[in-house]
Design goal:
Radius of gyration: 21 Å
Oligomer: single chain
Shape: globular
CATH architecture of the largest domain: 3-Layer(aba) Sandwich
Order of helices and strands: EHHEHEHEHEEHHEHEHEHEHEHEHH
Number of domains: 2
CATH superfamily of the largest domain: Glycogen Phosphorylase B
Strand order of the largest sheet: 3-2-1-4-5-6
Helix content: 25-40%
Distance between the termini: 39 Å
CATH class of the largest domain: Alpha Beta
Strand content: 15-25%
Structural class: alpha/beta
Number of helices: 14
């Protein structure tokens, strides 16, 4: 296992949250195979996230928007040339993931020629693996540990410390973030980073509630709210608050790494069940995260590096995992005062 000729493929094509919660598995692989050449297959939209990652030797992006058969064949040919010895598929079972997806991914692993192939399995697709984790074993722990289960099926238990689970920001990343904050007339530790956006609209809270919350944050804690997000989200905020609203709007003005630097320097972070919340947690920034249709048992951000508080509404139908919902009572029932109280607590605990 410790030999230098090991060539390991780490396969996961998820988005920001998935990428963050895969970090412990990446650390475990590097500890278990310190001399191996590790190749990380990533969603091409997440290539920046992995830039400069010290845990891998090579990052291969896969365009999820391109025709899957054509791109899959190209990727398979490339991987066969690299002659991997190990293939770890860290995709975890969705509650409605069909058998064909397990079969597709595990057949792909088999065709790479890797002798060691580890992944979650559905049923007969386990015959394509050397080490399988039955999908029935999934769902009792936080997502980063569910992923780690696949790695440890091969390596055995790997001891990890909170200091090892970190994101690879550079001094240049931090300096760019500092300049951006100074241009906004702010200083580190004197603002709160806020992410009022989610990929799934069913997880959003409503800009009217965010307006009341962020105004109260400014009044009660003396902290300036800074909104983070993408370009499209910047437009959404501007349309809702043509005059700027209760926050400095930096959505769409940062790279992913600059946004990470801004979150790291914030007094605390408040956001939804989304990727930036996971990023804030792994950076050690005190965090308050609002959950609605998602399952906090699985998707609560990692809290080993800093305090993380989950705020949930009252809805008997939650979690439901729906992308769209006409009711959204699980989100609309979250009171601003509960979020403010948890913000006070994480600042005290930090």
């Amino acid at each position: 296992m410790m030999q230098k000729e090991n060539r390991i493929v780490f396969f996961h094509l998820g988005w920001l949250g998935d990428s963050v919660v895969s970090i412990p598995s990446m650390v475990a692989l590097r500890k278990a195979f310190p001399g191996a050449h590790i190749i990380r297959l990533v969603n091409s939209r997440m290539e920046e996230f992995f830039r400069g990652c010290p845990l891998v030797d090579e990052v291969l992006p896969f365009d999820r928007e391109a025709p899957k058969v054509r791109e899959g064949r190209k990727l398979l040919a490339l991987l066969r040339e690299k002659r991997p010895t190990h293939f770890f598929n860290l995709h975890t079972p969705d509650f409605d993931r069909p058998f064909r997806h397990y079969l597709r991914d595990n057949l792909f692993a088999f065709l790479t020629g890797a002798q060691v192939r580890a992944a979650y399995s559905h049923s007969v697709d386990s015959l394509l693996l050397s080490h399988s984790v039955r999908r029935e074993e999934f769902g009792s722990e936080r997502m980063d540990r569910e992923m780690l289960r696949v790695v440890e099926r091969v390596t055995g238990p790997v001891s990890l410390t909170p200091d090892e689970i970190s994101y690879w920001l550079t001094d240049d990343d931090r300096e760019r973030g500092r300049r951006l904050i100074e241009e906004a007339g702010l200083s580190p530790g004197r603002y709160v980073a806020a992410s009022p956006f989610a990929k799934r609209r069913s997880r959003e809270w409503g800009f009217d509630r965010w307006e009341r919350l962020l105004s109260a944050v400014k009044e009660r804690f003396g902290l300036t709210p800074v909104v983070l997000g993408g370009r499209g989200e910047r437009r959404r905020w501007e349309e809702a608050f043509p005059g700027g609203g209760p926050a400095v709007n930096l959505a769409g003005r940062t790279t992913l790494k600059t946004a990470a630097a801004l979150i790291e320097m914030a007094r605390f972070f408040v956001g939804l069940d989304s990727g930036l919340s996971h990023l804030a947690a792994v950076l050690g920034t005190p965090s308050v995260v609002l959950f609605g249709p998602g399952n906090p048992l699985l998707w609560s951000p990692m809290n080993e590096k800093g305090p993380v508080r989950i705020v949930r509404g009252e809805a008997e139908c939650s979690p439901c995992f729906l992308d769209e919902c006409d009711d959204m009572r699980c989100m609309t029932s979250i009171p601003e005062e509960s979020v403010l109280e948890e913000a006070r607590r994480v600042m005290e605990e930090a």
